[in-house]
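During the practical work, I worked with a single protein chain and the tokens that describe its fold, as given directly below.
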Amino acid sequence: MFRNIKDSLSRSTAMKASVVAGLAVAALATGVPAEVSRSYADAVNVQAPQVPSFANVVDAVSPAVVSVRVESRVNAAADEDDSFGLGRGFDDLPDDHPLKKFFRQFQQQQGRGQQHGQNQQKNPDDKGHLRPVAQGSGFFVSEDGYIVTNNHVVSDGAAFVVVLNDGTELDAKLVGKDSRTDLAVLKVDPKGKKFTYVGWADDAKVRVGDWVVAVGNPFGLGGTVTAGIVSARGRDIHSGPYDDYIQIDAPVNKGNSGGPTFNLNGQVVGINTAIFSQSGGSVGIAFAIPATTAKDVVADLIKSGTVSRGWLGVQIQPVTKDIAESLGLSEASGALVVSPQDGSPGQKAGIKNGDVVTAVNGDPVKDPRDLARRIGAMQPGSKVEVSIWRAGKSQSVTVELGTLPADQSQASNDDTQPSQPQQPSSEKALADLGLTVGPSDDGKGVAITGVDPDSDAADKGVKEGEKITSVNNQQVSSAGDIAKVIEQAKKDGRTRALFQIQSGDGSRFVALPINAG
């Protein structure tokens, strides 16, 4: 029995040796090391260049970034309502559900804010009490407590609380705000403390593709950091005449408004103010006010609480390729004057409707936004040389700028000649334009009574019920007047004529092709 066991063991040992030898041969054949005593391979460890970390920038700038809580006075009935819309449906969730926990914490913070507002209420004549109505972001720009944020964050507020990155809450007062650039400045009492603050970058040196870091308070989650790149410059989102936004793809959400976007040197290149989104959340397209714009506005707000801007006082529109051709301009640039406002600096200097502003103090004007920014950046009372294109020639006028008023109304057009009967010879010219016209009710201009839907006029948005007040900057009061101007344009070799159209929404210029036959 013992021998048989021994023989079995011997045979077993031989078989194992054969298997090992076979593995070794197979390993050698495939180029894999023959060592088989190791059971596990080494952990993955890739030796590759490391992506630069943003941690040093974040550590340096975070103490300067704050959350802004805005409080407004509400009555008792409004207090009972869930104006934030966050509580509905959460009561049915389990007590340990993360959303219910989050909302419970939010309610507790809201309650503390309400109590804080009640304690600091200063005007006994005001009805209701203070309650949080908005949250945003901001940042210190001085060691003595000046904070920059967005105007739309604080515009409806009666009281303001800023929360530092360490959780400290401080009362703040509104120093000033500017709706045109959507900027505002708050101030907290330092009480002997020096705050960490940040400086402005020269955003003219910022290039598309540069890394940026956004710090703010999205959805009330203070101290949140996101990173991305500058994805575009000079964006116009139609929020006002001073649109010149930096577009970034760092995730920015509700609550980031007023917060800074930094370069890798810890300098503010822009102030987050808007996002492009159909869902309300980040889709990678955010817009920041450039530092160069914000720097000057903030300095004015700190100094006087308001922003003084130069004022030319003319309604303007872009110069399209068609309009440039109708006016004999070599390129589609500048700002076309639709009408100067009555009593404005531009009108007093002799600027007329149909003029094209091509330069200011010798510097070419690209478009209406460019003109608005340049004039707005100048001090009221300063004298500027404005170059204009009029009647196929360039000339210049000197304008003493006024102060941009808080509210501007569109100026009405100048009086025109009394209306005259239509002349039969004008019918063909108007038919070529796809228009039928008649006397206007007020005797000013020519009423448009019909528009061919297949005409260029219809494509350009000309509608029945509007009026033609001038053609090629010449006042018209009849169809015959229009025909005469068109014939002269043909003789001058023009292929288009510039029509001034008046509607209930104001006045605009439209370039229409004229029949050269």
